[in-house]
Amino acid sequence: MPSGDDLNTYHRLLGDLFDRADRVVAFTGAGISTESGIPDFRSPGGLWTKRRIIDYDEFIASPQARLEDWQRRFEMEDQLGAVAPNVGHYALANLVEAGKITHVVTQNVDALHQRSGIPDDKVIELHGNSTYAKCLTCGLVHTIAAIRAEIERKPEAPACVSCGGIVKSAVISFGEQMPQEAMLRAQRAALGADLFLAIGSSLVVYPAAGIPLMAKQNGAELLILNRDPTELDSYADYVVNRSIGEVLSPFAKPENRQN
Ligand code: ZN
Fold first, then answer.
1. Of 40-54, 59-73, 102-116, 173-187, where does mean pLDDT reach its minimum?
2. In whole angstroms, how large is the CA radius of gyration of the chain?
3. Model pTM score
4. Is 11 a catalytic residue?
5. pLDDT, tens digit, 9 for 90 and up, residues 153-209
6. Where in the chain is the domain with CATH 3.40.50.1220?
7. From CA 227, how far away is CA 201, in angstroms rounded?
8. Main-chain dihedrals φ then ψ at residue 102, nearest 5 degrees
């Protein structure tokens, strides 16, 4: 582990780890997206700590709660404005393209990994995806824009255009079951890894936080890259407490690098 705080030391460390690894899995949390200007809603003072939580059961039971949930989403969308992938996302995309990273497992719901160019089948979303909605009855996908237009026309919880069922954003709500298939795929990826990168996650939300440990216990090297210390630092082979973008920048294509 480098003792100094010299950024070049970290660049060399990552370069060496990538050289000797064959199957790298990246696991990402809110920290990679805060560098794109998306706030960490779970952090103290974040949106989730200020507002009453609408959990899954309430969403299903109450049309009023559904409308409120949608209106909050649109308000948040307006506050955020346009967001785009940053150098950290692009570095991971480049490593996927090079065949080094096999999968990106993410706790984020912003779809910025896909927008940075990673194919859908290489991104495993543990907490869902906020960029589209689904009918809970027939599974039909609805665009967020269509739902927004409908609610602006008539302020009521929208129903599925095909079957009349409840339409919900594809994010996993509080109180909703974790997506089993995504969890299984993430576990399989972790077990196949020889290098596991935990990036921008405080590693406190289970069962997601168990995935890096599973990789480590199965013999992978574990590197934690996060602004602040995490719950799992003592298990890691390497801990890097720096900005994600500056550490990963050399691994992005030149046009996406940070100056
Ligand atoms: Zn439907």
1. 40-54
2. 19
3. 0.92
4. no
5. 999 999 999 999 999 999 999 999 889 999 999 999 999 999 999 999 999 988 889
6. 1-38+85-127+177-259
7. 9
8. -85, -40
Give residues with Cβ within 8 angstroms of 30, minimum separation 6.
38, 40, 41, 42, 43, 107, 108, 200, 201
Residue with tokens 């921008």: 200
Distance 60 CA to ligand 1 centre (A): 14
Instruction: Give all strands of the β-sheet with 141-143 in edge-to-edge order.
Output: 141-143, 128-135, 167-171
Residue 103 scores a pLDDT above 50: yes
pLDDT tops 70 at residue 10: yes
Query: Which of 72, 247, 105, 73 lies closest to 185, judged by CA?
Result: 105
Quote the DSSP letter at residue 233: G
Q: Spot the catalytic one: 89, 103, 113, 127.
A: 127
Confidence of residue 44 (pLDDT cuts 50, 70, 90): low
Domain with CATH 3.30.1600.10 in the chain: 40-82+130-171
What is the 167 CA–ligand 1 centroid distance (Å)?
Answer: 8
Percent pLDDT > 70 in the chain is 94
pLDDT at 110: 93
Q: What fold, for 40-82+130-171? A: SIR2/SIRT2 'Small Domain' (3.30.1600)
pLDDT value of position 3: 45
Ranges of beta strands (E only) in 172-226 are 195-199, 221-225
CATH 3.40.50.1220 applies to domain 1-38+85-127+177-259: yes
Q: How far is the CA of 166 from the centre of ligand 1 (A)?
A: 7
